Amino acid sequence: MDSLITAAARALARGDPLGALGRIALREDPPALALRGITMAQLGDFDRARELLRRAAHGFGPRESVAQARCVVAEAEIAFVSRDLAWPDRRLEAARTTLEAHGDRVNAAHAHYLEARRLLLIGRLDEAERALAAIDPARLPPASQAAQALVEAGIAARRIRAEAARGALVRAERHAQDAGIPALVAEVAVAIRALEGPAARLIARGADRILRLDEVETLLAGEALVVDACRSVARTGVATLSFTSRPKLFALVRALAEAWPRDVSRETLLARAFSAREADESHRARLRVEIGRLRKMMRPLAGITATARGFLLMPRRGRKPVVLAPPVEGDHPEVLALLADGEAWPSSALALALGVSQRTVQRALDGLAEAGKAESFGRGRACRWIASGVSGFPTSLLLPVPMPSR
Questions:
Q1: Span 297-339, pLDDT tens digits
Q2: Residues 90 and 113 sit within 8 Å (Cβ to Cβ)
Q3: CA dist 330 → 335, 368, 370 (Å)
């Protein structure tokens, strides 16, 4: 490897893409093309970066399999940063296997990290943890150790484990400082601020206050009957009921929990669950049916008693009902939570991360755009979406995650 290539690689490693570009901008050999591709990625021109990396991989040829594999890993990182979550992960796995077979442990570990990062984005936390477990952090440079710790913090935050998330971010901050890369230091600082920021609102007995993630963790470990509007579940200790496929029933139980220890009028319940401003007998009959379904579903956690004007929630074992709500409410908060990471998302990646159809996501994006909370740029497959004009911090509690087990 010649001196200019070596100098460009060192400039990239310390986060100086312009310094690297100045050394290789006019070269067309495969090593220079690969470094130019990484440089353009650091400068934000992802399309040009992909093109250069593919040219480099083709130029290396089949005899230089390690160099080709490194190009694939770099292309995968660009895909995930640009939220192309449908990028073929089998190519990344094949590249990682090649790197491991040839003793390139650092780049093989980086491929493992990228797999974990993608799995975190789409809410497959167990698989993300297994991918991280395959990495020996002692053999990684400080920048890679910081990136791995950021993924560990993301997994812990999604699982509402504040202390574990905080510990991972402390490690990430230390490694980022050792790496001396300003962009990485800034990324860690943003993650630390997010962890200490608002995670949810607690609504109980007419009062409303903001909670941090550690306070949410304490609440869920307590004795309260928590109606969790962030994840559409109701839980007490180890018992959890999911309402993700029953939004009307969840609207009813949330209204009952917010009003406790008072009852809720039938008119209010109809407005909350069915948007019925003027209720007729058909609406009342429908409410009775839904209350019957809710009563049956909630039986392990609470009873529901009819009163003269409506219905009253009756928790088991003297538990006090509380509602855990997002700090910012409105339509499609889970989409906003993903857009809040600052990256530009295609609708296909949002659908993959949320586990819904692309048509459903597109309707949500159109609604958010009309409300001034999201905006798009580009056309067709190049269309990307970003958050705009959102007050407050969309919490990670709104992101997809397996049902917690304790």
A1: 999 999 999 999 999 999 988 889 999 998 877 778 788 888 8
A2: no
A3: 11, 9, 13
Residue 298: is it exposed, middle or buried by C-beta count within 10 angstroms (0-12/13-18/19+)? buried
Both tokens assigned to 184 = 């990485």
Distance separating the N- and C-terminal Cα atoms of the chain? 53
Residue that finishes a domain, picked among 196, 222, 257: 196
Distance CA 62, CA 59 (A): 9
Give the closest residue to 302 by CA, choosing from 260, 247, 248, 345.
Answer: 260
pLDDT for position 395: 64
| Residues 288 and 385 grouped into a single domain | no
- Alpha-carbon distance of 186 to 182, in angstroms, equals 6
Instruction: Write b or e for each residue in 104-133: b if 16 or more Cβ atoms lie within 10 A of its Cβ, otherwise e.
Output: beebbbbbbbbbbbbbbbbbbbeebbebbe
Query: Which residues, listed in sequence order, are joined to residue 305 by a DSSP beta bridge?
Result: 312
Q: What string of DSSP letters covers 64-110?
A: -HHHHHHHHHHHHHHHHHTT-TTS-HHHHHHHHHHHHHTT-HHHHHH
* Residue 350 to residue 357: CA distance in whole angstroms: 9
Question: Residues 49-83: pLDDT tens digits?
Answer: 999 999 999 999 878 999 999 999 999 999 888 88
- Where in the sequence is the domain holding 256, given as residue range(s)? 201-325
Give 193's contacts (C-beta < 8 A, 6+ positions apart): none
Q: Is residue 267 part of a domain?
A: yes
